[in-house]
Structures are given as structure tokens and as C-alpha cells.
Amino acid sequence: MQTELSNQLGVEHAVFGFTPFPAVAAAISRAGGFGVLGAVRYTAPDDLRRDLDWIEAHVDGRPYGLDVVMPAKKVEGPKNHTLSEADVEAMIPEGHRQFVRDTLAKHGVPELADGEASGWRITGWMEQVARGQLDVAFDYPIRLLANALGSPPADVVARAHERGVLVAALAGSARHALKHRDAGIDIVVAQGYEAGGHTGEIASMVLTPEVVDAVAPMPVLAAGGIGSGRQIAAALALGAQGVWLGSLWLTTAEADLHSSALTRKLLAAGSGDTVRSRALTGKPARQLRTEWTDAWDDPDGPGTLPMPLQGLLVADAVSRIQKYEVDPLLGTPVGQIVGRMNEVRSVRAVFDDLTRGFERAVDRVNRIAGRSGQ
């Protein structure tokens, strides 16, 4: 599974694995892929530095990258004052806060203990947090910086390029991909409707060739609904130079979900058990369908708030749901490929399956092409 891009980065397989877990990122790189650590949950620079130190010690010299969530524009307050987290919190209506309290009370979700901080807080969207992450990351030999919220600011792209770091950005349409190209991005990740997390409206089979044609000769990675070697072969046949996989790693042995109940839900879920909902962050994000997503999507409810208000509103609630494993409300971002995630396997075992499936698919196409050429 080698392409021009994988050769450029010095990896054996053109499989880019996004994950919030350092152990998974390192295992992906050791298996011959390209591990990408998600940074959005790191609000303290020292925590990110600790985990990058760990990756450096366990990646066996293989390349890896970092994924941030950085807006192209600052969130500004009056007189061009950049809003703090407290400023944004103050914008959340009391009616929405009460809806959260009522929903949690309905399901008997306990409070966090006194002094126990929320372990789930999306503040990485804030520019000052993301820039702090980059100050740490650029002290390490990362080879790729990916941004999950449009093109990063121009000075960040320039800063990465000065260090020889390639910059990737996710796109849900050809129009978005062209904006990335014009912003000096090096790689476009064409993320289809089937993918976990924030997605657009276009399915991968349609999106990938559209983006490939729009930004050629820029390299494109295909994302969304990919979890087998056959699907990797299809993505490369559509013109992609690799695949971007995220959901598939959630049920690997190296993943640390801190919740056996959530792992069981993922293993039992089918491809129809996800929903594209604004419940988590305020932007449409594919995740397991739960009574929590149903409550926020109910037309009789208050509706979700725009990003970043929704993420801050539900942060403590999600931490409580996860800590106490409240099954009806317990969920996570995950793509429709969850229907194939039926057992816990090591990252290496996943790679072995992907490579074997890829080889079989390519052999099959070659046999068909050979017969048609006779």
C-alpha cells in the first residue's frame, strides 16, 4: 500500500491513523502506517509534552503527526478582544443549562465529586489553546500537522513549512478542498458523510474523486467508511494517495476508552447505529445514537447551540455520563464503519487484516483486467 505520498513520508503503508490515544498512534507508526495524535483534549501544554515524549520513546524512530482543531479566524469580542473561555461560557442561555440538568436528572446521573474536574472539555478550538499545543508540538520531529476545522491560519502554515512539516486539512466538499489548496495546504483529507466526528453531506465514493480532480496534483487522503483492505484499494483506485482512518482504532487493544461499557456498545453496534448530530459540539458530528443525542435532536427541546457554546455547555455532563457509564446516554464519535468493529484486536492485527485484504482486492482487479484485455 505504497504511494508517492507514503514514500515521501517514509512509511510502508499509505494508512494515516488518527487517534486521541498515544499508544495507538505509536502502534500505527510501528506497524508501518502513519500515526496522528489528536490534540483537542490537551488543555495543558505539559500534558501534551508528556504524551509526545512517550510517543518519541515508543515509535521506534518512525514518523508521526499531530491533529489540532484550530479556526482560521479568531473568536473576537468587543474591540477585537479575543474571548476567553469564561467569556464564552457567559453566552450560554440558562434555559439550555436547565435542559442539561433535567436530562441528567431524568437518568439519575450522579454529580462529580467535590473538587473533581471535568475530564472531557473541548477547549482546543480556542486559538490560544491550539497555539499552545503547536508551541509544544514544534519542539518534536512531527512530520505532519492536520487541522480538523478548515485551513489553519496562514502564519501557522508558514511556521509548519519552515520546519519541513506538511500541513493537511479536512474537507467535506470540493469547494472546501479548493480553499485549502489556495491557503497553501499540502494534503487534503476528503472526509465523507460516513465518517465519525464532524462531516459534510457527501458520501466518500462521490467525494473522493471530486476532490482528487479539483485539487490535482495535490495529494488527497480518503476518509469515511473505510475499515478494510478492499476499501483502501477502492480509495486508491479513485485517485487518493492514502486513507485517513479514525474510528477503526477505538476498539483496538491499545485504545484507552476508560469505559468497558462504551467498548461493549461499540462492539455491538451496527452500521445503522450512528447519527449525525450537533449534540456534542454544535456542528454536525457522526456519533453513536443514544438517548442523549435523541434529546438534543428532539424538536420539542431547546435545540443545540452553535460551536463552541454547545461543547462547553455539555462538557461536565459528558464527563459524568462517561465516569458513571450511564448506558442509555453513553456514546462517542464514531463512523458507520462501527458495524465492522466486532472484536478487540491489536493495532498490528488490524494492519495485518488491512494489508491482506488490500492484496486480495488488487489481485482480483488484476485478474478481471487481465480477462478483459484478452
UniProtKB/TrEMBL annotation:
Enzyme class: oxidoreductase
Annotated InterPro entries: Aldolase_TIM, NMO
Keywords: Flavoprotein, FMN, Oxidoreductase
Source domain of life: Bacteria
EC number: 1.13.12.-
Pfam families cross-referenced by the UniProt entry: NMO
CDD domains: NPD_like (cd04730)
One GO MF term attached to the UniProt entry: oxidoreductase activity
Keyword set includes Flavoprotein: yes
Name the record gives this protein: NAD(P)H-dependent flavin oxidoreductase
Origin organism lineage: Bacteria, Bacillati, Actinomycetota, Actinomycetes, Kitasatosporales
